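Help: read this over?
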Amino acid sequence: MQSVKDVIGTFYKKVPIDKKYCDKCDRQYDVYEYYIRGEYKGIIDFCEVCYKEEQNLEIAREAKKHRSLAILNKYNNISVVPYGLEKATFESYIPVTQSQKEALRISKEFANGGYDKTTLFFQGDTGLGKTHLSYSIYQTFVDNGKPAIFVDLPSLLTMIRGTFNKYDNDKDLNQEIIMKSLQECELLVLDDVGAEYVKPDANGFESWAADILFQIVNARQGKRTIYTTNFTSKQLSQKYGMMSKRIISRMMNNAKVLKMDGQDYRLKGLD
């Protein structure tokens, strides 16, 4: 009975015809002619050691790529992008007022890692481009393979509230996974701070929302974070009650406040 080696030899055969030195590693290697079922097929002329090393590197690169994609997908599951904003870019934002031009300039610097503040705080009325610029920064991070989350606070609180009837070991998102992701991502954009509605407590404050928001802003200290709001600091203080001072203080830590003015671009053309 023929051995496996003999059987393979009847189909595939290598015949050494020369020796060379590898340009990469200086090892000597054999050059072969190879035959399949006795028919000449070509020449094998490469260093097998370097070839195997390159194959292993390629496998490692692919594994790293898949791990990176898995991480990005985890954060994508939490992101909530407003309808129509998916194509928003820095180029498509047309500033009108000086404050809008300044916001665009700083946003570009921040997106490219050249701004010395870790936090941007966009403040102003609706329709001035706060969310547009924030999303453009977020998309820059994502395009560069950096883990980022973009979510408005009302949607985030709804998402967290929806986890209350789930078990901790649920394969879907639970509160622990959400909060950990918000803490660990390289960039967090928390849009529409103050726009959420949670039933007030006996003192008239939204204590549950305030507690969640405090946990988030506290965990984001020293990390790239963007907040946007239509509210003034006084209005936020009234909304969050006793927690407001600690919330606002942490939001403002190493932050650049961008107060934007102008006309709501959504209402242009209306009398």
Summary: Residues 4-52 form one domain.
